[in-house]
Design brief:
The complex is a heterodimer.
Chain A: E1 5-12, E2 22-29, H1 36-47, E3 66-69, E4 72-75, E5 89-92, E6 99-101, E7 104-105, H2 108-116, H3 138-145, H4 155-159, H5 161-165, H6 172-182, H7 190-197, H8 211-215, H9 222-242
Parallel strand pairs in A: 1-5
Antiparallel strand pairs in A: 1-2, 3-4, 3-5, 6-7
Helix pairs in contact in A: 2-6, 6-9
Chain B: H1 17-48, H2 50-60, H3 63-90, E1 94-95, E2 98-99, H4 102-126
Antiparallel strand pairs in B: 1-2
Helix pairs in contact in B: 1-2, 1-3, 3-4
The chains are: A alpha+beta, B mainly alpha.
Chain lengths: 248, 127
């Protein structure tokens, strides 16, 4: 009996050669312990060395191998062939991002949004080193821990129809990371982040489709971060109305 | 070499169950809004006097309006239940440093809904 094979339909885009992306079929050996990334590595090593894609850790930590697999954003290192076999697996670059080449997307837009929300601890009053570290209780850690699990894989942006229709939207991961620092007891920078998070392209663009949370491989729940962001900005606004003399 | 920009798909909500249910949820708000308009018209006719009010009530029981109310009720129920299911996303309640389980938050919404409905029913049925 011939060894089992599975077909991968890979979207190819070779700048300078292709006017538009085209699908190319590859037959690869089927093994039930292989993930889509293993199949792509087989293609690259044995069949066609020109196929380009990003990957690094192959264990769901680095966040580089996100792709559309049969139309769903997934980490290709966590998408087992056995879940698709014997059907064809369609592999495309993450939706809603420009294609650099083949399965490689241009992520400049996200990088710019990520830095805009200042995802680091901001202090108004830096305490001297001699005072030691800023200590935190387990309960304080628990408030933001979930949002700190983000690996910037961008599956949430590829799942978000709002980001497709309104590319200025700051988006799920950047807002979740803003929440991660806003909820940190050591941080004092919420006011600075609010300009972006509660601004015209921030949380209020979200219509709560909820797919960002569904596709997140790290259970970050960006949809939750955005809705809580709406609640906090609404409270800010109410405070500014009730206490117009108070500081926001 | 510049990257290839894919044009946005405007039929994104077709062919994906989660997206279709989302669009249905958003469209049910049209019925909720329409019902609010009917309630405002009721107040306006009440202000215009007995004849206007009674004429409005007669219009409300015409077959077309009864059919509309049945559709609007189904839409409002779908709208409410889907939003209740999503409420723990926005409402993170902590008691004693622990997060209240999402199911409890959803149940609290249903409980509040039942209490308000009973109060409204008592007021309306007593009249």
């Amino acid at each position: 009996m011939a060894a089992a094979t599975i077909t991968l339909e890979v979207l190819r885009y070779r700048p300078g050669e292709d006017q538009a992306p085209v699908f190319q079929d590859y037959q690869v050996p089927y093994r039930d312990d292989w993930v889509v990334l293993d199949a792509l590595n087989h293609i690259k090593d044995e069949i066609d060395g020109t196929v380009s894609y990003r990957w690094s850790c192959r264990m769901g930590v680095c966040g580089s191998c996100g792709m559309m697999i049969n139309g769903v954003p997934k980490l290709s290192c966590a998408a087992f062939l056995k879940d698709y076999y014997p059907a064809t697996v369609r592999v495309e670059p993450l939706a809603h991002f420009p294609i650099e080449r083949d399965l490689v997307i241009a992520m400049d837009d996200f990088m710019q949004k990520l830095s805009a929300v200042k995802p680091w601890i901001i202090r108004k009053d830096e305490q001297p080193l001699s005072d030691g570290e800023y200590r935190q209780t387990p309960a304080e850690l628990d408030r933001y821990k979930q949002f700190s699990m983000c690996i910037n894989c961008l599956l949430c942006y590829a799942a978000c129809p709002v980001y497709e229709l309104e590319p200025r939207f700051v988006g799920p991961a950047a807002i979740a990371l803003a929440a991660r620092y806003n909820l940190d007891s050591r941080d004092q920078g919420r006011g600075q982040r609010q300009e972006i998070v509660a601004g015209p392209d921030g949380v209020w663009d979200c219509t709560l489709v909820g797919e960002c949370t569904t596709v997140c491989p790290k259970d970050v729940d960006p949809a939750g971060a955005i809705q809580q962001g709406k609640l906090f900005s609404a409270l800010d606004w109410m405070k500014s109305v009730v206490l117009p003399w108070g500081k926001r | 070499m510049s990257p290839f920009h894919r044009p946005p798909q405007f039929n994104w909500w077709v062919g994906n169950r989660a997206f279709t249910l989302f669009v249905v949820r958003e469209l049910t708000s049209v019925f909720v809004a329409a019902y609010a308009v009917l309630a405002l018209l009721l107040l306006r006719n009440l202000a215009l006097g007995r004849d206007a009010y009674e004429a409005y009530l007669r219009w409300l029981v015409t077959p077309g309006m009864v059919a509309f109310h049945i559709v609007a009720l189904v839409a409002a129920l779908y709208h409410s239940t889907t939003w209740f299911a999503l409420s723990p996303k926005a409402m993170v309640v902590r008691i004693g440093g622990r997060r209240v389980p999402p199911r409890v938050v959803v149940s609290a919404n249903y409980l509040a809904w039942i209490i308000v409905s009973v109060i409204v029913a008592v007021i309306v049925l007593r009249a």
